[in-house]
Amino acid sequence: MLERLEIESFLVLADELHFGRTAERLHVSRARISQTIRSLERRIGAPLFERTSRTVRLTPLGRRLHAEVEPGYRRVERGVARAQAEARGIGGVLPVGYLGSAAGEFLMDAIRAFGRLHPDTEVQIHETQLSDLLGPLRTGRVDVLVTQFPVAESDLTRGPVVLRVPRMLAVPANHTLAKRHSVSLEDLARDRVFACSGDVPDYWQKHFAPACTPSGQPVRRGRSASTMQETLAMVGAGQGISPVGADVAARYTPRGVVYVPFTDAEPVEYGLVWRTSGETARVRAFVAAAAGLAALPEDAQAVGTGPEGAQAVGTGMEGAQPVGTGPEDAQAVGTGMEGARSLGTGMEATGVRGAGMMPAEPAASASASASASAGDR
């Protein structure tokens, strides 16, 4: 019967064809690998590798042995990994929900990151709606939700902030505010602001559409809408105005709508929420993977880690600090009305310059180099 180190040494050396790199991967000395391979060859009764001062390659017998041993060994590895995951409570099915396009794009990357760590866990994806903001969590349709903050519910646990998106104001194209380069929260008193219909907490409603401006001017409530598309349709019809995230401005361009950036509004924050009573090792593992994805090193390339205009935020489980909004000199962008520019998909097109991914704290990096020598490489 072959020992585990003999099998692993043989398979890794067959992959690397280099004794030094094989030793590094298995965290043993190069002399130990050489000794193990010689012992295996004595047990087999013939050489499995041809060695020169420059190269290492499999013999015909070594290739045949590799073809027969490698698939079975990988099946054993996968079986052990599945058993370990089930023992930790991570393996199985995890239903995850999201609200909005920014959350949806971040969720795709979070699932990929989680899948690399826990390949035997199936993540089921569910889109949620404003009209039932937290209902899917409470009914058990989802175990984790990526949604817009604030969330302050006694039965739910709020996790880390994972995205921050600059806030903009959607106004009709013939509105006086449509000609402005920027707006402030005081401008909310200039027209009716749409409310959200359905099961939406009052504090959440007031966060996005406050009852009064910072100076105390009353903000009139407009009609209620259950979806963002419905809200934007009413804006385009001239029935009111609505604060939105820059991700919405980058993706939805209904006729007659102009997006104008705020100079003083806090960004829209997205984060993770789950039932306190439903917290499991599986939920904790997914939250950790998502939080790690948000904590990008400063020099990392922000590809596929969130929508254009979204800022990735590196946070620990204890929360995150707010960041600023877009620049004050950003240009307003109209869509489909008198002389208005068409809205593109990047933040330059929406006038929020520099609103791309915000890097988190730099992650420490280390590199190691291995020297090759003649003989057992």
Describe the protein's topology.
Layout: H1 4-16, H2 19-26, H3 30-44, E1 49-51, E2 56-58, H4 60-88, E3 92-98, H5 101-117, E4 121-127, H6 135-139, E5 144-148, E6 156-165, E7 167-172, E8 193-196, H7 202-208, E9 221-225, H8 228-236, E10 242-245, H9 246-251, E11 257-261, E12 268-275, H10 281-294, E13 311-312, E14 333-335, H11 347-350
Parallel strand pairs: 3-4, 3-5, 8-9
Antiparallel strand pairs: 1-2, 5-12, 6-12, 6-13, 7-10, 7-11, 11-14
Helix pairs in contact: 1-2, 1-3, 1-4, 2-3, 5-10
Description of the structure:
This protein is an alpha+beta fold. The chain has eleven helices and 14 strands. The chain has helices at residues 4-16, 19-26, 30-44, 60-88, 101-117, 135-139, 202-208, 228-236, 246-251, 281-294, 347-350, and strands at 49-51, 56-58, 92-98, 121-127, 144-148, 156-165, 167-172, 193-196, 221-225, 242-245, 257-261, 268-275, 311-312, 333-335. It has a six-stranded mixed beta sheet with strand order 4-3-5-12-6-13. Strands 10-7-11-14 form a four-stranded antiparallel beta sheet. Strand 3 (92-98), helix 5 (101-117) and strand 4 (121-127) form a beta-alpha-beta unit. The two termini are 27 Å apart.
Structure at a glance:
By secondary structure, the chain is an alpha+beta fold. The chain has helices at 4-16, 19-26, 30-44, 60-88, 101-117, 135-139, 202-208, 228-236, 246-251, 281-294, 347-350; strands at 49-51, 56-58, 92-98, 121-127, 144-148, 156-165, 167-172, 193-196, 221-225, 242-245, 257-261, 268-275, 311-312, 333-335.
